[in-house]
């Protein structure tokens, strides 16, 4: 099997390693089958899309829609590298799954509007598949409505031309979309279980997603959530595109 590639951007080792382990576990992959590239650590190496099964983009502390003056040099570099690769992914119809930050990446590159209109606080929200989502070969494994963890400062306000909206939630109209037949993006986190989001809450307590003094209450709140369904997306994507 040709490996999948995980493009990661989390500078904090605890969060970065936890994300990678979750992708392995829920995707049913070994470390040899999922090559991780930490873009925040250095320039993206050459990636031959003909030699991979697909590309996965993880979440990120970066916010695509931030004004340029607020972006670090690392973020500017990462965004440029991701944009160039995403354009190649679209041109070659390479399987792609973007989780949270991947919505901004795929949405912007494909011509959509991504901004802070539909930001959501950290927590579990009910996500509902559209009719297109229920019929989709990757998303169709999910229940019609399920809970998933979110926590984002931006989201898709206007989907890219030709995008098919696959899932929605009360506070965010575009929780997932597909471009063409093989490129997917989710606003919710398909890799996050309760232990994973508790780690993120601890690591990012000063990142502006919530007030630092809310950590204990937020941890108690997310610990009661049932988020068994979202990881099915990862497994379904891997099973469909492994080659």
Automatic annotation (TrEMBL):
SUPFAM superfamilies: Class I glutamine amidotransferase-like (SSF52317). InterPro entries: ChyE-like, Class_I_gatase-like, GATASE. The keyword Lipoprotein does not apply. GO terms for cellular component: cytosol. GO terms for molecular function: transferase activity. Keywords: Glutamine amidotransferase, Transferase. It holds the Pfam family GATase. Residues 50-192 form the Glutamine amidotransferase domain. CDD domains: GATase1_1. NCBIfam families: PRK07567.1. This is Glutamine amidotransferase.
């Amino acid at each position: 099997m040709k490996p999948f590639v995980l493009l990661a951007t989390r500078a904090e080792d605890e969060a970065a390693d936890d994300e990678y382990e979750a992708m392995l576990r829920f995707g049913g992959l070994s470390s040899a089958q999922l090559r991780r590239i930490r873009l925040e650590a250095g320039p993206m190496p050459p990636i031959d899309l003909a030699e991979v099964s697909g590309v996965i983009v993880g979440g990120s502390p970066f916010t695509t829609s931030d004004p340029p003056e607020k972006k670090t040099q690392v973020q500017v570099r990462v965004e440029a590298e991701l944009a160039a690769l995403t354009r190649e992914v679209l041109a070659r119809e390479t399987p792609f799954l973007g989780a949270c930050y991947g919505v901004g990446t795929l949405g912007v590159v494909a011509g959509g509007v991504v901004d802070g209109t539909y930001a959501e606080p950290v927590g579990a929200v009910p996500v509902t598949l559209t009719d297109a989502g229920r019929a989709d070969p990757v998303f169709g494994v999910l229940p019609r409505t399920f809970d998933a963890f979110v926590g984002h400062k931006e989201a898709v306000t206007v989907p890219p031309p030709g995008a098919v909206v696959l899932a929605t939630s009360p506070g965010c109209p575009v929780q997932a979309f597909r471009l063409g037949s093989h490129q997917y993006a989710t606003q919710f986190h398909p890799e996050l279980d309760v232990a994973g989001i508790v780690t993120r809450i601890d690591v990012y307590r000063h990142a502006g997603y919530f007030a630092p003094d809310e950590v204990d209450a937020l941890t108690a709140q997310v610990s009661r959530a049932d988020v068994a369904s979202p990881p099915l997306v990862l497994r379904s994507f891997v099973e469909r595109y492994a080659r």
